[in-house]
Write a structure and sequence with these properties.
- One of its GO terms (biological process) is cell division.
- With 345 residues, the chain is an alpha/beta fold.
- It folds into two domains: 135 residues, Rossmann fold; 179 residues, P-loop containing nucleotide triphosphate hydrolases (Rossmann fold), CATH 3.40.50.
- The protein has 14 helices and nine strands.
- The strands form two sheets. It has a five-stranded parallel beta sheet, with helices on both faces.
- The protein is globular and about 60 Å long.
- It starts with a strand and ends in a 7-residue tail after the last helix.
Length: 345
């Protein structure tokens, strides 16, 4: 028998320390290492990336960065403050970034680009700088600039952390100098974009780009009258969050995205009733953050309503945030497949 909870009744209160404690690789990358990465012999850049990251990791915490004394006396750090992994989906960038995090001495942080912008929103810019300036390494996964505000915000944050001697490592499938292209008038923010590019040495990782495969086919939604039986079959003995999809979307507006990780504490499975296409951009972007946290925690999902490949409007799937929406659909589809492994009794 499953124990039923409701995300719509949860309003987590999270301290600064608790927020920062969440900045570590997800369980999917909880035990990876450089040794467990398997470079493709046909793609020499993959082995070269491992070597570059290992070399970069050796200088973390050795005093070869910037910091207070270097700012006072005008000395410059050796090399750039960061390393930037550029490549398509599925070539192992997150694996390598998490491997660097595991190998580096602390204090250190690992989070997605969105998690860092949400951290600033929760703490304020100055308090975020103060909190992270004492770290030896800050890892930023899925680096993506979607609007001018994020461009200015992240360029300032990276610059101040680099000046404080913090080493930076990032992944993306867009070169630093091309960030923001296709989303807004990037030329108007070229200075900020160039500040970001100047922080990193770029390491290219070649390999098959899974973007060319398109979206995976989403499993069919569960008929509403079968949800309870399916929940019993899949989640017996588990804590399951059961919510009306529309009510959950409204509830998320009152919970800061930086707290979505805590919103899911202890949840083993998700059941959503009456999933519908999201038509408002702000609602969709909040939901993408929840989808990422569910994927991080590997929480299977049962849902009735529209299939997950119809979660976002065609305009959204072709617009400036399309990468976010494609990623969310792909991840939710994988979680939906995990939840449909047993026949109801």
């Amino acid at each position: 028998m499953a124990t039923v909870a409701h995300l719509t009744t949860r309003t987590p209160r999270v301290s600064v320390d608790e927020l920062l404690e969440g900045f570590h690789p997800s369980p999917r990358f909880g035990e990876v290492s450089f040794a467990s990465y398997r470079p493709d012999p046909g793609q020499p850049s993959q082995a070269a990336a491992v070597a570059a990251l290992e070399e970069f990791g050796e200088c973390i915490g050795t005093g070869n960065g910037g910091g207070f004394l270097s700012r006072i006396f005008g000395s410059k750090p050796k090399g750039r403050a960061g390393i930037y992994l550029d490549g398509g989906f599925g070539v192992g960038k997150t694996h390598l970034l998490a491997s660097l995090w595991h190998a580096a001495p602390g204090p250190k942080a690992f989070g997605t680009f969105v998690e860092y912008t949400n951290l600033v929103g929760a703490l304020s810019f100055r308090k975020t700088v103060e909190a992270l300036s004492g770290y030896r390494l800050v890892c930023i996964d899925e680096f993506e600039l979607d609007d001018p505000g994020d461009t200015v915000l992240m360029s300032r944050l990276m610059r101040e952390l680099a000046d404080a001697g913090v080493k930076l490592a990032a992944t993306s499938n867009t070169l630093p100098g091309a960030l923001g292209e296709g989303r807004f008038a990037a030329v108007d923010f070229q200075r900020e974009i160039q500040v970001l590019a100047d922080q990193f040495d770029v390491v290219r990782i070649d390999g098959e780009d899974f973007r060319h495969r398109g979206l995976p086919a989403a499993p069919p939604p569960v008929p509403p009258h079968e949800l309870d039986a399916r929940m019993k079959a899949e989640f017996d003995g588990s804590l399951v969050a059961v919510d009306d999809f529309g009510s959950l979307m409204k509830h998320l507006a009152g919970v800061h995205p930086s707290r979505y990780r805590q919103l899911l504490d202890g949840i083993d499975g998700i059941v959503w009733r009456d999933v519908h296409t999201i038509e408002e951009q702000a609602v969709a972007l909040r939901f993408v953050v929840l989808a990422d946290r569910l994927y991080d925690k590997d929480v299977p999902i049962l849902a009735s309503g529209v299939p997950f490949d119809q979660l976002f409007t065609p305009d959204m799937m072709a617009g400036g945030y399309m990468k976010k929406y494609f990623r969310a659909v792909s991840r939710l589809t994988a979680l939906a497949r995990e939840a449909q492994t047993h026949e109801p009794s």
